């Protein structure tokens, strides 16, 4: 019956990667807690980098600075 | 004062259906718990089918398989 | 497949009231969006009044003021 | 280590405003609780006005009525 | 930078099981998306069975019925 | 109309600190986005350190190691 919400930045995540996340998290819940996969939900939120902040800064700004340094 | 979050797959939900969800949930909270509708918030998240997993699979893949069977 | 999260203040909500909330929300999703009740999850969070703020104030403080006025 | 989620209606919020929200919330957590900004996450969800209900109504409908009255 | 929220029913989950969930989910995000584990947060919510509904019923009621059948 | 959810570890946060968080976040939303404080909700979740993971580890384990080093 578990519900899992994964929030990641929206940076070119492929459908194949999403499928692996869902499979992996569901397997983990079956193995560790013997949960029923049929009612295990996994929801992936892709958050725009300008909507995610860490350490006072927007991720979009951090990405720009990282690019400039390269 | 309640806050309600409804997560559904993003599959052609109309504005009229959203209005019915908001009205229905708010009424329920007024009836069952005597809450104040003026501060009752309902937020509907429409999640892309490729971002929702259930039973090891992405809903987008489940939809494709269902279509192929028909 | 929907997932619903209801956040209310923790103020003597009975199990019977919780059952009515779950039944009511699930029925609404079946009626409005033709969702499958078997995979419809409703999670109720009871939040302590000192952990909920509205209009600059903690609900616990608002409750105290309301009691003093009576 | 805190995690903060801010949900607002999607109504022309600028990147500069988002940056101010992230900075302000992070500062508050550092000042009040002495949290480490390096692991403080702030996620801003911009919700379409037709997906947010308050007081039985969708915000999109409230905005329309307000415009008509002007 | 990901943030993961796992909601499960509050039914005797041990600290060792929680540690395995955190390790497993973090590893998955590192493997699939090359995320930085140092800023990957996993939050586990244990929800009382009387606060979780599925298929019109509270889990607490489903558990009682299951026990009576045995 | 905003809704803000603050998740922090459950480590002796006082009611006075919670009141400061609510006041500060609400003020920020009024200043930056001109939001109405009367319908601005702030919910604080205090999460047990054994239910919060970061960098593969439970915070409860990190706290123990930190104590042992001192």
Under CATH at level 1, the class of chain A stands as Alpha Beta
CATH fold group of chain A? Macrophage Migration Inhibitory Factor
Q: Gap between N and C termini of chain A, in Å?
A: 46 Å
Low-confidence stretches of chain A: none
Largest beta sheet: strand ordering of chain A: 1-2
Largest sheet of chain A: 2 strands, parallel
Task: Provide a brief overview of the structure.
By secondary structure, chain A is an alpha+beta fold. In chain A, 43% of the residues lie in helices and 27% in strands. Chain A has a single domain, classed as Macrophage Migration Inhibitory Factor, CATH 3.30.429.
List the helices and strands and how they pair.
The structure is a homohexamer of 70-residue chains.
Chain A (H helix, E strand, L loop, with lengths): L2 E7 L5 H19 L7 E7 L4 E3 L2 E2 H11 L1
Parallel strand pairs in A: 1-2
Antiparallel strand pairs in A: 3-4
What does this 3D model show about the protein?
The structure is a homohexamer of 70-residue chains. Chain A has helices spanning 15-33, 59-69; strands spanning 3-9, 41-47, 52-54, 57-58. With 70 residues, chain A is an alpha+beta fold. The first copy, chain A, has one domain (3-69): Macrophage Migration Inhibitory Factor. Chain A has a two-stranded parallel ribbon. Chain A has a two-stranded antiparallel sheet with strand order 3-4. In chain A, β3 and β4 form a beta hairpin. The longest helix of chain A is centred in the middle third of the chain and has 19 residues, at 15-33. Chain A is elongated and about 45 Å long. Chain A starts with a strand and ends with a helix. The model of chain A has no long low-confidence stretch (mean pLDDT 96). Chains in contact: A-B, A-C, A-D, A-E, B-C, B-D, B-F, C-E, C-F, D-E, D-F, E-F. β3 (52-54) of chain A pairs antiparallel with β2 (41-47) of chain D.
């Amino acid at each position: 019956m578990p519900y899992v919400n994964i929030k990641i930045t929206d940076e070119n995540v492929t459908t194949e990667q999403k499928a692996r996340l869902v499979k992996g998290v569901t397997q983990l819940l079956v193995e560790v807690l013997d949960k029923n996969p049929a009612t295990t939900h996994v929801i992936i939120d892709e958050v725009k980098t300008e909507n995610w902040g860490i350490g006072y800064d927007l991720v979009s700004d951090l990405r720009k600075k990282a690019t400039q340094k390269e």
